[in-house]
Design a protein that fits this description.
The structure is a single chain. With 367 residues, the chain is α/β, with parallel strands linked by helices. It has 2 domains: 113 residues, Aspartate Aminotransferase, domain 1 (Alpha-Beta Complex), CATH 3.90.1150.10; 217 residues, Type I PLP-dependent aspartate aminotransferase-like (Major domain) (Aspartate Aminotransferase, domain 2). Helix content is 38%, strand content 14%. The chain has 11 helices and 13 strands. The strands form 3 sheets. A 7-stranded mixed beta sheet has the order 2-8-7-6-5-3-4, sandwiched between helices. Strands 9-10-13-12 form a 4-stranded antiparallel beta sheet, with helices on one face. The chain has a two-stranded parallel ribbon with strand order 1-11. The chain is globular and about 60 Å long.
Length: 367
Amino acid sequence: MQKAQLSAWKRMMSKFFSPKFRALTPYTPGEQPKDGQYVKLNTNESPFAPSQKAQAAAGEALATLQLYPDPECRALREKMAGILGVKPEQIIFTNGSDEVLNFAFMAFCDSDTPAAFADITYGFYPVFAQLNSVPYTTIPLAEDFSIDVEDYIGLQKTIFIANPNAPTGKVLDLAKIEQIAAANPDNVVVIDEAYIDFGGKSAVGLIEKYKNLLVTGTFSKSRSAAGARLGFGVADEALIADLNTIRYSTNPYNVNALTMALGLGILEDESYTKENCAAIIKNRSYTTERLRALGFEVIESAANFVFAKTDAIGGKALYERLKAKNILVRHFEKERIREYNRITIGTMEQMQQLLQAIEEILAEVTL
């Protein structure tokens, strides 16, 4: 959300709006132009459409839209359980992973149990905390944007860690995640794995050992379904029961029939997902090498994006010049990262268009 739009909303608030939400600063989603003129590298979507098998499965669901969807998502949970090596009772499906994250703030945080997360991470965490009146602490990342595990030992707070992190792309290894979970036995540790399929190792295998561990994931990135809104959580059955209590108290039909059918079709075509992930990893390596050759500092990424800056031009100026050339990347105004831009990895053609535009801009600013 742009500052101007937020200011306009604040001015338009009615007298009926609850005072407890008047100070709320909503999450700012990436630009979503619909005119088709942009090379869109700003919101970490997949450049690949869902597979034909997945699309066909969603099409078949059209014939039964007069009926409510299965609130238990049984077919989806059973299929995902087989893929992840867990029990169906250890999985919850939600309307995007944002919903399961919000459920976690509702279920596992309150005035006595605050939340804790990094200062540079997914921007929805502080919004969920404010929305649910949860006090929270932000923990500064190290100078190189890595997490210092010692900062997370014995916090007595519900911990949220995006792994790989956004917007940096840095990944935390499983041994460190295990160390954090073990050091906080009386609190839930949430590992947000939205980008895990692009180079990290999932913590799902740790949920049997650590009953306080909740791992969340999404179909928006590696599984090409950002528009369908499908997310999930994996944890000990007791934690999933907690989350389902929240879900059934808000919207038991939170995953619609079309999305459910599409999701099942996606899971039945895992080879397609793996091929796409391999292509993105290859394109990420190519883009990283080319950017570094152009003088950029590029943080080593395990996600489907890179985080990069150059001394030749400021972060916001580069974002604006790329937009003028019909290429969108994501710029953030936070002080520590304002010289960086987050660049989604797309097709090879898209990355070559980006790099050509950057070369042109660098040539212009050095004249």
